[in-house]
């Protein structure tokens, strides 16, 4: 979005006052948030808290993608939903909660799972993407699409008592530019063997573990959107300041210390998605010739791409 | 292997494979000992030797072994989806399998998580 | 609470299934949660997410204390409240949200601020206390009362882009027992000069920062309540396993790494609250002779003890 | 002070007092240099000297100075509400003011936060 020229209205100063007064946000940062659109893919244990804090902070547009409906077994960790809304689509349930928290945010519903055919069309509408999904196939699809579209990706995952967080494709430079941030394929060139993939349904998940990871995704998105908000706006806000070096945050609820930061590699020179010799192209994606489910293999049918 | 002391840690579910989060090498406990090659004077211990030693502990339990290492091209390759970190840095920054273990090193194997 | 003997009902297996199947919780851990009562002091930026995840996890009784009403400037971070409930007491607003998330949890409302006169009477009803308040005076009062009553205390705070978390009085042994965990006075024997105390109103606060700290409080409470849930129950669940060494978790949203764990001291041999020569007694507290507001001094009137 | 290199860090709002989060000592930048006493051979640099040096940088700005140190009993005392950490441990475990700085040490001053 281009640089905004209008100030906030009075109720916005009131609502956002506590973050506006911080030098890290300021009026320019708040306007950046207001003019930003963020997409949350997966409105589950990660997506619920991520959405709540992004809506609280006043992003202009929040997109929500999920094809599932609310189940009772979701409620211990998916705090936007409620017992009375079991059976409703997760997207609609979340919209009710988010709209009552902050009616100023425009919520956009996408009530089916992301597919290779729909990914570019949907993701291109947003400035930043949050991967809050729960299968390897969806993680590769989202990352590939973010690289093709030049969008930064905030990716998190959680299982049992552990969580992981990465900011990928940041800065989101074109494929082949080694100054761009690594993508999911740079870090994990090959998918894990399907028998090693444990879902939250199989392995279990502690609510606050996935909750912490989801909130940290909202935080990283806010940091990305408000970077350089204090200096005069430039036409390339994502590039004006050097990005943090790529890192992986590992959370382990029963370890001591609980958090650990790992330095990650830069872009992989032969990455299939973000290198000069990338084989993942928009055409291949939209034609359906990239079969992510087959690429990742299946033991059980993948139920949440 | 001289006086090299280092540690191997597991995260993201791999701790279940080896029954614990952290193994000091050499270990106080007999059952945690891993087999490392006898080195000649001047020869150095490499990360691939440590991976071989860890894999040997899973021998006979094929389903588990495959979650840690795969293939057999002279030495094991770490299963896709596992990040290897040396002193909190991606091993791709450090030389991967050929990295020479230093005393005090922390080697961490992290399995990527997919839940959400 | 004594060891429970009845199992869960069918809908509880469904609702809590994803945490029940983990060895860290298990059926015994879920029963521990169901039989536990937790008090949240302060239903603001910390208390909202802490309450949501404790209610999601299925604690039996959740107490909520706060004397404030919901304001629009709270909503960017206090995600249990809503625009339509501005003006309602925070406790009542939170009860509506929490009850719709999980109607199985008994919610107990305390709609006035904690005072030295009421503290013992209220805190003694609960197994674990979460300090989610925002002034030094309330932090000393809550800690002193936890020491007097032998309750573990999960204390967090946040300001601007930073947060801090400590589990205090853990294990909660009687004053003078050096094997008990340190209390707030052990770590901070003297209150800070009032002019150094910055509130979220003055200094600002980023929503996800306080959100992360609040969720981590819920996590620490769940860990404490379910400790030793796998071995046979004993009559002293809090003591059966050694506690983690006392530590302070420091979160700094714009630092790299974002999290840092600090080893804290053990109990202070001359602590005014938890040592053999403690001057803080139940009698002094209930008679009102301990004036926490005066002890901490004031620049502006303290508006939220 | 010989070849001792260490760092001083600030958190919880104290970074605003000194204008930055981390000061290496000795520093590359002139304006970040802090005054440390000339030590005799065999004499060691103590944490109290570092605190004096940091306090000296706030001289003349009394309101700020009081947020960092108070009193004047021969040397400054750190203002209540500030935790001092040496290599991620509470300084009460390490000897407080009399702690002898070692090369590589990280000294962290954390102001306690009260917001919620
Ligand atoms: Zn790549
Ligand atoms: Zn004490």
Q: Can you walk me through this structure?
A:
- Chains B, D: There is a cross-link at residue 116 (Glycyl lysine isopeptide (Gly-Lys) (interchain with K-? in acceptor proteins)).
- Chains B, D: One of its GO terms (cellular component) is cytosol.
- Chains B, D: The modification 1-thioglycine is found at residue 116.
- Chain A is α/β, with parallel strands linked by helices.
- In chain A, 35% of the residues lie in helices and 14% in strands.
- Chain A has helices at residues 10-20, 26-34, 47-57, 90-101, 116-123, 136-149, 184-187, 200-203, 207-226, 237-240, 282-287, 292-296; strands at 37-41, 61-65, 106-110, 128-131, 153-159, 162-168, 247-252, 259-263.
- Chain A has an eight-stranded mixed sheet with strand order 3-2-1-4-5-6-7-8, with helices on both faces.
- In chain A, strand 4 (128-131), helix 6 (136-149) and strand 5 (153-159) form a beta-alpha-beta unit.
- The longest helix of chain A is centred in the C-terminal third of the chain and has 20 residues, at 207-226.
- The two termini of chain A are 29 Å apart.
- Chain B is of the alpha+beta class and 116 residues long.
- Chain B has one domain: Ubiquitin-like (UB roll), CATH 3.10.20.
- Chain B is 20% helix and 23% strand.
- Chain B is built from three helices and seven strands.
- Chain B has helices at 14-18, 47-57, 62-68, and strands at residues 6-11, 22-25, 69-70, 77-78, 82-86, 89-90, 106-111.
- In chain B, strands 2-1-7-5-6 form a five-stranded mixed sheet. In chain B, strands 3-4 form a two-stranded antiparallel ribbon.
- In chain B, a hairpin with a 2-residue loop joins strand 5 and strand 6 (89-90).
- Chain B is globular and about 50 Å long.
- The termini of chain B are far apart.
- The mean pLDDT of chain B is 89.
- The interface between A and B is large, with 47 and 27 residues.
- One zinc ion is lined by residues 182-183, 185-186, 267-268, 271, 273-274 of chain C.
């Amino acid at each position: 979005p281009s640089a905004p020229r209008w100030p906030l209205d009075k109720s916005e100063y009131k609502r956002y006052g506590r973050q506006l007064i911080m030098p890290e946000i300021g009026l320019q940062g708040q306007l950046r948030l207001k003019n930003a659109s963020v997409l949350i893919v997966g409105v589950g244990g990660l997506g619920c808290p991520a959405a709540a804090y992004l809506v609280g902070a006043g992003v202009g547009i929040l997109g929500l993608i999920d094809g599932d409906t609310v189940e009772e077994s979701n409620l211990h960790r998916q705090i936007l939903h409620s017992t009375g809304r079991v059976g409703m689509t997760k997207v609609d349930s979340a919209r009710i909660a988010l709209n009552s928290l902050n009616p100023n945010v425009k919520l956009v519903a996408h009530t089916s799972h992301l597919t290779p055919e729909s990914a570019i069309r949907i993701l291109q509408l947003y400035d930043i993407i949050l991967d809050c999904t729960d299968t390897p196939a969806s993680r590769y699809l989202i990352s590939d699409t973010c690289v093709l579209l030049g969008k930064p990706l905030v990716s998190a995952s959680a299982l049992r008592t552990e969580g992981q967080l990465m900011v990928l494709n940041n800065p989101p430079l074109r494929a082949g530019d080694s100054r761009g941030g690594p993508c999911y394929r740079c870090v994990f060139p090959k998918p894990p063997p399907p028998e090693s993939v444990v879902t939250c349904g199989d392995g279990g998940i502690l609510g606050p573990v996935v909750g912490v990871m989801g909130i940290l995704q909202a935080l990283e998105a806010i940091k990305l959107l408000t970077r350089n908000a204090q200096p005069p706006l430039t036409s390339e806000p994502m590039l004006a300041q050097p990005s943090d070096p790529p890192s992986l945050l590992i959370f382990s609820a029963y370890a001591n210390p609980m958090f650990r930061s790992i330095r990650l590699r830069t872009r992989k020179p032969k990455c299939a998605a973000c290198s000069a010799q990338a084989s993942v192209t928009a055409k291949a994606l939209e034609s359906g010739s990239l079969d992510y489910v087959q690429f990742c293999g299946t033991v059980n049918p993948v139920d949440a791409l | 292997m001289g006086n090299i002391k280092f540690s191997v840690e597991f995260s993201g579910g791999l701790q279940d494979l080896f029954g614990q989060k952290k193994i000091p090498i050499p270990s106080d406990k007999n059952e945690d000992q891993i087999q490392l090659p006898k080195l000649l004077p001047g020869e150095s211990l490499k990360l691939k030797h440590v991976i071989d030693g860890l894999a040997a502990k899973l021998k006979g339990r094929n389903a588990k072994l495959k979650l840690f290492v795969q293939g057999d091209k002279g030495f094991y390759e770490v299963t896709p989806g596992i990040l290897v970190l040396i002193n909190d840095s991606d091993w791709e920054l450090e030389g991967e399998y050929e990295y020479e273990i230093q005393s005090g090193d922390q080697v961490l194997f992290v399995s990527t998580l997919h839940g959400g």
